[in-house]
Amino acid sequence: MKTWGNAALALTAAAVLALTTACGQEKGESSLGGQPAGAAKPAGAPAENAYGSDGYPSGGYGSGSAGGAAEPAGQLVAADTKTLGKVVTDSKGFTLYRFDKDSADPPRATCEGTCADAWPVVSPSGAKPPAGVDPALLGEVTRADGSKQLTLDGWPMYRYAKDTKPGDINGQGVGGTWFAAAPDGKKAAPASGGAAEEGAEEEGAEDEGAGGGDDSTEEAAGLSVRKDPELGDIVVDSRGMTVYRFKKDSAWPMKTACVGPCLEKWPVVAPVDKNDTEGISTKGYVTFSRPDGIKQQTIDCWPLYTFAGDKAPGDTNGQGVGGTWYAVSPEGKLVGAPK
Fold it and tell me: Is residue 16, in this structure, part of any structural domain at all?
């Protein structure tokens, strides 16, 4: 037993040493400081002075209905959106979402407790498929509390508490795990013709290394560089949305100060394969396993985010917010931050 324990400690020390080499903290850039190495605030704890740390809304869809009966979807509709193509809505026009931590085969719902406060479940009672959609795609799953939840192609369906009016899609991309549902149950695809998240997962190996066509949006890398007229070269994701860093985070040890409600305003950048990048530094290009269980991409070991307030490619509405959020250079540096 002592031999096994010593070997395990040696392997752990080697892993820490390797990560230390890859993720050495930059001099002169702020960290959370004052905490033990590797420390992180618990999931759900408010980030000090973090944008959007005001908790869940009091007036959104399903707000205050925790523990109450789930509302039925009624006649589902395949609604057209400007940014995501067709998404499924309920009979009142509210967008339905799916959660990456759930599963479709077999159907399983994992959003419970306070999660279900923010993401009210959809009852299967009286649900009818959108026009042209196979009724066999509709189903139901029994939740841990014994209640029933609507499924679409096996995926449990939810609404979002911050969608306050029909047509809202404020839940898209929250935490890098919540996505509007397409009529076939997959993740809704950008209306511009870019690859859907679901397609990227299933066909990434085939698309990798494909040559560029006339439509650069379709072939956009997972992370690339855009020349902004005011900020210069900044990193953008596959949708062309600006990527940001939070000054209260740190690179070594990798720690995040954006947790809980902060992530609703600042969704994490989900892991992107190194081969699916263009023009950015791959130094310290590693995946960060956050204390809340979400996987997050980093550049030079700094956690990366997008901003919910950016509504279209090219927007930089998150730049300078709170004096702590800034766009990211191809090397992972803060762009435009005061010295």
Answer: no
CA 150 – CA 157 distance, rounded (Å): 6
> How many residues are listed for the chain in this entry?
339
In a domain, residue 198? The reply is no
- One-letter amino acid for residue 151 of the chain: T
User: What is d(CA 85, CA 89) in angstroms, rounded to the nearest whole number?
Assistant: 13
pLDDT for res 13: 44
Q: Which residue has the higher pLDDT, 221 or 297?
A: 297
Sign of torsion over alpha carbons 263, 267, 272, 274 = negative
Cα separation, 57 vs 163, in Å, equals: 10
CA distance 103 to 122: 16
Domain count, the chain: 2
Quick: pLDDT tens for 253-311. 999 999 988 998 999 999 999 988 999 998 899 999 998 888 899 999 999 999 999 99
Q: What digits encode the pLDDT tens for the residues 119-173? A: 999 999 889 998 888 999 999 999 999 999 999 999 999 999 999 998 899 999 8
Domain residues for the domain of 223 are 30-56+219-339
Measuring CA to CA, which residue among 238, 242, 73, 239 is closest to residue 159? 73
